[in-house]
Design brief:
- The complex is a heterodimer.
- By secondary structure, chain A is of the alpha+beta class.
- Chain A folds into four domains: 208 residues, no CATH class; 160 residues, Immunoglobulin-like; 25 residues; 81 residues, no CATH class.
- Chain A is 23% helix and 27% strand.
- Chain A contains 13 helices and 25 strands.
- In chain A, strands 1-7-6-2-3-5-4 form a seven-stranded antiparallel sheet. In chain A, strands 14, 15, 17, 18 and 21 form a five-stranded antiparallel sheet that branches. Chain A has a five-stranded antiparallel sheet with strand order 19-20-16-23-24, with no helix packed on it.
- In chain A, a hairpin with a 7-residue loop joins strand 6 and strand 7.
- Chain A is globular and about 120 Å long.
- Chain B is α/β, with parallel strands linked by helices.
- In chain B, helix 1 packs across helix 6.
- In chain B, 43% of the residues are buried.
- The chains are: A alpha+beta, B alpha/beta.
- Chains A and B meet through strand 14 and strand 25 of A and loops of B.
- Chain A: InterPro entries: PIG-T.
- Chain A: This is GD16119.
- Chain B: One of its GO terms (biological process) is rhabdomere membrane biogenesis.
- Chain B: Keywords: Membrane, Transmembrane, Transmembrane helix.
Chain lengths: 597, 577
């Protein structure tokens, strides 16, 4: 899609707010229970596939990094750091089950306690506060996460906006992100008078080019596979907002919207058309609700695509250098605004990558030039927690002022570690992930910005906030680093080969060493006719003797055999007692030969 | 075209300025253009490169103007699909391999702050990247009417892409009904009947020959250094298309389908190519020789050198008497003198120090070959790059040639040098063979007979054999070998010219070759020049010393203090027995 993404993701955003106190009619029981069990006051979980492209899409309503992301604030009486660590791990495990995501991999080796960048939204000022943050960039978000996420809604997936989220259509988008936010809002003087707030968000970006359409028209049915079948009966408000200015201007809406809202935020106005589901489904006859966007029928539709204006701050992250020994993690922040902006950067560098703080540098260049020179930017703030092998990730927070129309390149040199062989994942040659960095800045204007204010929970709350607090948290790309990987099939081959050789050698040696070899008597008759006939003649004569000898001969043979082991000893003990009893075959044959001679 | 749509595929530019100082500050400027198709199923952590070189119409190389449209057609197709799980980079490079090298350096080391006065290649920085690159496909299409597709795999320093990638391309091309293969012959020539064995042998030798130079056969070769598997599919024009011509452009459909197939196969890879074969020699399109089979050949060749080293070591003279015997001096009065001295142990001290100094001197000459042609004051001499490099190299090899006449090792030194030479020679060949098998193998085939025949002892060698070995050693001078190879190639290419002209032309071509070798080593990191200068030339100097077997007159040795300035004579004339 060129960029009607500005209109479509909002159409797909459902925001629900349920205000109850441990009221399991609206909040799922799990969440109500865990708030009692753990001292968690604020919890954010994001499950995202794809990368939000700031250059073309602006800033999202809810920020998320690709893969899974999770952070929580803990507060309580007599809470220690160690308690928080164990609670954090338990919390991740609970939500791993609730959302069917691999959040159970969250532990101390990939969690940090952010110092500056992540702020609590509603926390009592008094008392100790702890924060934990972790990302799992490897996590692949799929249907199995969507279904449990929908189950957390009070109406489930049966009615309301959640009925639009069919996995087949949701996963054909360019970007989709599921969010879960739990906050406990308590009164300052009364700790028990609390409100639990659960916000669930879904953020989708469609690309019309992937639909193989003949024109640029689209509709709810085209995007989600079906129209909207009503609203959740428990909901107080259920609304669809469609942006009408900028790129939204080109489209004609069918049906025509009833309400229009004009908002001004940070000096930037946006016009939204509003469809209120409570009004749409007032009459009993309404079945399915559908909105269609009709593009102008002009011939060269590709020409009139206005290039979207660049958001003031954009960010990218690369892994530079080649080889499997060392590299550089490079984060590039660009300020296209004319004025200087404060920038905060938080990096989590996993333990299998050694970072060297002395190599940390911020270089700058004018925005229009590609190459970085030697001009540096000074740090205003630097917080660094060194990592520890197999225990802690390195945690880095930097703050600096970025001049206008300038890019900054923050680079730090790293060494790649050779892991122990059990620490490699099954797909070792896929590479290891380094989670994305978060860049935070205070935006000078509201263009391209539509995030919710901290005190709000519905999309309409973002209209009325005219505070100067336009704070954007940008997430960069995650990185794949290919650590030195041994050839895992080689030990396998060696083991196979060695086992085969050992097995082949062991069998015969073992049987020779342990088994007693008893030479049996030939029972089958010789094939040669002469021999056979002669054999029959002699056998007949011997048979009578054998029958007589069997009585005394056999016990003797048995005793001898139990006495002696091996091949040689089985022979002599028998023959004297009973010349024809268990006589060895060889001797027997010899005799026969002699007899023939 | 897909790249013209803003927002579909981001259009990026990468300006590369190259200063190749060895060609006397000729500067090349180029501009690479690339677009990244952001895959919907991944967060830009991995990418695949599809590259097509752009050649100006005035270029001396074959016209491949059809490759850029083909690339863009594929990009337009790929844009409409949502199954991409790796970002696709569509890259059009200028200035042949220089452009590709510049792009790769900018992609991987774009933040480097280069010293502009010293850098040979200024790649600049890239404004957008697509994570770690997993594989690359270079497309060179001469025309949409395709006769056959030649799959080129040899990269820098003889590195190869994973065999799986070659097989993948082969399978998909076969499925689309395109005749393709490694060194695929055109349709016309394909029919004539050679025996299978001869064909296979021919293919194997051509592969080894093209690998041994270490020069990549296409833009793909530069990717291998960054551990990105890459190969080139070069579609060749159909020669007789007058009768076969169908609707224009329809012939491109199978090729486009094949490219799509390759792209989707690479897209579906969960891991990088790994653990399969990176070391192989292709004998047929569906047959190869693995490293386990070809390495023993080289090892067996080189083992001769080690065996000979052991034999020489075990017969090293331990006493003065043996030394004299070995050298073939037997004089009455010395024997008497020896008898007198026999009471005290007549242990002979091998001259380790002087041999070590001699070795260092030869290595120093090799080192200078690497360093001197790049020095600023040499570059300021008003001379072309090729004559300059060649004159420096010839001068240094001349020093090496004269060295054994000037410096004569003390008694026993030659034997010790021989042992050292054999060991160094064997190790060097094994190491070269591991890095670039073809080069090591050819070097071994050429030199092992000579090295085995080489003897320093005087008594058991006839003078004719000796002279032949000396002559052979002289011919084996790296400079001479390069000249002979170039001469053979010139003769093969221009058989109509008179011999004198061919010789002259080969001389200039060889001079150019040495200059290009130097440039390659400086810009791309080709090892060939380094190997020849730093390993083969010193080895040759030692070999030359050994084949000359210059010895000090024994009298000089004894009365060293009285007559230190006696000029050494060729001792083969003084033999007494």
């Amino acid at each position: 899609m060129s960029t009607p993404t500005f209109s479509s993701p909002r159409a797909g955003t459902t925001a629900k707010r349920i205000i109850v106190i441990y009221h399991t009619q609206l909040t799922p029981r799990v969440i109500a229970e865990l708030l009692q069990q753990f001292a968690v006051k604020e919890l954010h979980i994001g499950l995202t596939q794809g990368l939000w492209r700031y250059e073309t899409w602006g800033y999202p309503i809810v920020e998320a990094t690709s893969g899974a992301e999770m952070w929580a604030w803990f507060s309580g009486a007599n809470l220690t750091n160690r308690d928080v660590d164990s609670q954090w791990k338990a919390l991740a495990n609970v939500f791993s089950g609730v959302l069917c995501a691999s959040l159970n991999f969250v532990d101390n080796t990939n969690s940090i306690a952010p110092r500056h960048l992540i702020r609590p939204q509603f926390m009592p000022a008094n008392g100790q506060r702890f924060v934990r943050y972790a990302t799992l960039p490897r996590e692949i978000v799929c249907t199995e996460n969507l279904t449990p996420w929908k189950k957390l809604l009070p109406c489930g997936s049966a009615s309301g906006f959640a009925s639009l989220l069919n996995s087949g259509h949701v996963h054909n988008t360019k970007y989709h992100s599921l969010g879960l936010k739990v906050r406990v809002l308590c009164e300052d003087h009364d700790e028990d008078n609390c409100i639990v707030e659960l916000t669930q968000t879904a953020n989708l970006v469609y690309d019309l080019r992937l639909f193989e359409l003949s024109n640029n028209d689209f509709s709810l049915r085209r995007l989600f596979g079906m129209g909207l079948n009503g609203y959740c009966e428990l909901a107080e408000s259920s609304k669809i907002y469609v942006q009408r200015n900028e790129l939204g201007e080109r489209y004609q809406l069918v049906p025509e919207p009833v309400h229009e809202v004009k908002t001004t935020r940070g000096g930037h106005s946006v016009v939204y058309s509003v469809y209120d589901m409570h009004e749409q489904f007032k009459e009993a006859g309404e079945r399915l609700f559908n909105v269609a966007w009709l593009a102008p029928k002009s011939a060269n539709r590709r020409r009139n695509l206005a290039k979207p204006s660049l958001p003031p701050v954009t960010v990218h992250r690369y892994l530079l250098g080649h080889g499997q020994e060392r590299g550089r993690i490079v984060t590039e922040v660009t300020n296209s605004h004319y004025d200087a902006l404060p920038i905060m950067l938080q990096e989590v560098i996993p333990w299998y990558v050694h970072a060297y703080l002395h190599t940390l540098s911020i270089r700058r260049k004018p925005q229009r030039i590609n190459e970085y020179g030697r001009q540096r930017l000074p740090f205003k703030l630097l917080h660094y927690t060194p990592g520890k092998q197999r225990e802690l990730p390195s945690h880095l927070e930097i703050g600096f002022m970025l001049p206008g129309q300038t890019s900054a390149l923050i680079s730090i040199d790293v060494d790649y570690l050779l892991l122990k062989w059990l620490e490699y994942p099954p797909d070792a040659n896929h590479g290891h992930y380094i989670g994305s960095a978060i860049v935070s800045s205070q935006l000078p204007m509201g263009r391209n910005y539509s995030a919710l204010p901290p005190e709000g929970h519905l999309f309409e709350h973002s209209f009325k906030c005219d505070t100067a607090e336009l704070c954007a948290h940008l997430h960069t790309e995650a990185l794949i680093v290919s650590l030195p990987t041994p050839d895992f099939s080689m030990p396998y081959n060696v083991i196979c080969l060695a086992c085969t050789v050992v097995a082949l050698a062991f069998g015969p040696i073992h049987s020779v060493a342990t088994k007693m070899i008893i030479v049996g008597r030939q029972t089958s008759t010789p094939k040669n006719f002469v021999k056979r006939s002669s054999n029959q003649v002699f056998r007949r004569g011997k048979a009578a003797d054998e029958a007589a000898a069997e009585g005394e001969g056999l016990p003797a043979a048995g005793a001898a055999a139990s006495d002696a082991t091996g091949v040689a000893s089985a022979r002599p003990a028998i023959s004297p007692g009973s010349p024809s009893g268990d006589q060895p075959l060889l001797e027997d044959l010899d005799e026969e030969e002699e007899e023939q001679d | 075209m897909a790249t013209q749509r803003i927002g579909d595929i981001n259009k990026r530019r990468n300006k590369a300025a190259t200063k190749t100082e060895a060609i006397k500050s000729i500067q090349y400027h180029g501009k690479n253009i690339y677009g990244i198709l952001r895959a919907p199923r991944i967060a830009s952590t991995e990418g695949i490169v599809f590259a097509a070189p752009y050649r100006a119409a005035s270029s001396v190389h074959t016209d491949i103007s059809a490759s850029v449209p083909l690339l863009l057609a594929f990009a337009d197709f790929a844009r409409r699909k949502n199954y991409w799980a790796k970002d696709l980079i569509f890259l059009v490079t200028e200035q042949e391999q220089l452009g590709m090298q510049a792009w790769l350096e900018a992609y991987h080391d774009g933040d480097r702050d280069l010293d502009l006065s010293k850098a040979y290649l200024r790649p600049g920085n890239l404004p957008a990247r697509a994570g770690s690159l997993q594989a690359a496909l270079n497309i060179e299409v001469q025309d949409l009417e395709i006769d056959h597709v030649d799959v080129r795999i040899e990269g820098l320093n003889g590195k190869l892409p994973n065999l799986d990638m070659f097989n993948l391309v082969q399978r998909i091309m076969a499925r689309e009904g395109i005749a393709s293969g490694y060194k695929q012959a055109p349709r016309k020539k394909r029919r004539h009947s050679q025996s299978h064995f001869e064909q296979n042998l021919r293919q194997m030798l051509t592969m080894l020959a093209s690998q041994s130079s270490g020069v990549p056969t296409g833009n793909h070769g530069l990717f291998h250094r960054y551990r990105i598997d890459a190969l080139t599919i070069a579609a060749n024009r159909r020669a007789t298309h007058a009768t076969l011509k169908g609707s224009p452009g329809s012939a491109a459909v199978p090729l486009l389908k094949a490219i799509e197939g390759i792209a989707r196969s690479l897209n579906n890879l969960l891991e990088r190519f790994h653990q399969s074969f990176f070391f192989y020699v292709i004998v047929n399109n569906d047959r190869y020789i693995s490293i386990g089979d070809y390495m023993p050949a080289l090892v067996a060749l080189v083992a001769c050198a080690f065996l000979k080293a052991y034999l020489t070591w075990s017969t090293l003279p331990a006493t003065n008497a043996e030394l004299e015997k070995a050298a073939g001096w037997l004089r009455e009065h010395e024997q008497e003198a020896e008898l007198e001295e026999n009471l005290e142990p007549d242990k002979f001290e091998l001259p380790y120090g002087s041999v070590l100094i001699y070795l260092t001197a030869t290595l120093l000459i090799g080192f200078l070959c690497n360093v001197l042609p790049l020095q600023q004051y040499f570059l300021e001499i008003p001379m072309g790059a090729a004559p300059l490099t060649t004159s420096v190299l010839s001068f240094l090899s001349l020093i090496g040639f004269v060295l054994p006449f000037v410096v004569v090792l003390p008694p026993g030194g030659l034997e010790l040098l021989h042992v050292a030479f054999l060991l160094i020679y064997g190790c060097a060949l094994i190491v070269i063979g591991l890095l670039n098998f073809a080069l090591g193998f050819f070097a071994a085939v050429l030199t092992v007979p000579l090295v085995i025949a080489l003897e320093t002892k005087e008594e058991n060698s006839r003078s004719t054999l000796r002279d032949t070995i000396r002559l052979a050693t002289l011919v084996m001078n790296p400079m001479m070998v390069v000249y002979v190879i170039v001469l053979a190639m010139t003769f093969y290419q221009f058989p109509e010219l008179p011999v004198q002209k061919i010789m002259l032309r080969a001389a200039t071509a060889a001079m150019d070759a040495s200059a290009y070798g130097l440039i390659d080593s400086v810009i791309y990191g080709n090892w060939l020049y380094f190997v020849i200068c730093t390993i083969f030339l010193p080895l040759w100097i030692i070999c030359w010393t050994l084949s000359l077997s210059k010895r000090r007159d024994y009298a000089d040795y004894l009365d060293f203090d009285e007559s230190p300035s006696t000029s050494p004579q060729p001792q083969s004339k003084v033999k007494t027995n």
